[in-house]
Amino acid sequence: MSSRPHSSGNARSVALLLGLLVLCVLAMVACGGSGESDSEGDGKEEGQGQTSSTTPSSDGDQGDADGEDAEDADSDEADPDGNSDSTEPFSIDNWPDEPVIASGDPAGDADDGTPGTQLGPIPVPETSALVASRLEDDVYWTIQDRSPEDDRAALHGFRLVDGEVDPNYGGPGKIRTVMVRDVANVDWETLSHGPDGTLLIGDLGNNDCRRNDQKVLQVREPEADDLAVDLVARWQVDFPDTAAACGGKNSEASTIFDGVYTILAKTEPPLLYQLDDPVDGQNTLTRLGPIAQPAGGFARLTTGMAINDAGDRVAVTTAGKRFWVYDIDGPLLESLATSPPRWSRRYTSTPDTQIEGVSFLPGTDDLLLIGENRSLWYWPAESYEEGELG
Predict the structure, then answer these.
(1) Three-state SS for 161?
(2) Contact assessment for residue 214 and residue 237, using Cβ atoms and an 8 Å cutoff
(3) Exposed, middle or buried by CB within 10 Å (0-12, 13-18, 19+), for 252?
(4) Considering only CA atoms, which of 230, 212, 213, 210 is closest in space to residue 221?
(5) Which of 39, 93, 232, 329 is a plausible cystine mate for 218, CB 3.0–4.6 Å?
(6) What CATH number matches the domain at 105-387, 1.25.40, 2.120.10, 2.60.120, 3.30.1490?
(7) pLDDT tens, residue by residue, 210-226
(8) Whole-prediction pTM value?
(9) For the chain, what are the domain ranges?
(10) Neighbours of 6 (CB within 10 A)
């Protein structure tokens, strides 16, 4: 009697144990299937994360996205415009191949140029280039373009007195003329200051692309009683990027940037070149690159260039009715390469007016411009600053 209940209890215990075992097996299967499914899901999400950074759905993807965001943040901090190329420090080696051009509307013809004051005419035909004397106050030197009829190897000086050209600076009814010995005016176009109180005459004209003898003539600046000056050095210059069919580039603008002779070629776009460590003889110019341009670009080719004494403004003239002034903020060459001009004005002109030279008045931001038709224009800074470009 007592054995049956015991046997029945054992049966129930076995059944209970079997039931628990089945439940455990089922639970293990369920856990294993879930793990495999999650693993497959991570694999798919990683694949999606690699092809599209916009749909992170796992912790791994979010980490990748965070890393990308961090990199983007670093890039944005280095360059607010998001241009990764500009994070590299500026140098001649990474000068832009194409000119930086300002956005917005081009400068129009509404500006009539009336704030400029005409001081001329200068009694010298076909004047070209302009530079202030470093020996005499209020005196400026200019040169003439070539002429087959007469010898034009000379410097011409004039003096300003009370805002007018002194008609007797070189004698009664004359401006001053000082001959340059032992040289010819093949096509003189530019004039700038040189080292040790000298002047640099750019015999750089090359209108027909025929010359292979372009040069810079270094002469001593004439003193008060000089009737002629001697040549100090003759720097023959070669452009490094000239086509074989052409001996050089036509150039009508030059000045000194940070102690280095710098040429602005009359090309489209205008290109800067420098003459490093010149020697009396053959020299190869260093090509820098195009200068930054206003909205719409320059309407005409460049004819003159000057820098003020402070080194924070550069003026560029073009062949017809307008000049441009750069506000130098930072390294000079970098500013010219990357920052378009800040100001521009038109000058009242006649059909034969073409501004050929520009100079800042010493110690100021005021401008003096000279045209090949003997015209002379004075522009105080406060006048041309009214032409601030947008």
Answers:
(1) strand
(2) yes
(3) buried
(4) 230
(5) 232
(6) 2.120.10
(7) 788 999 999 999 999 99
(8) 0.76
(9) 105-387
(10) 8
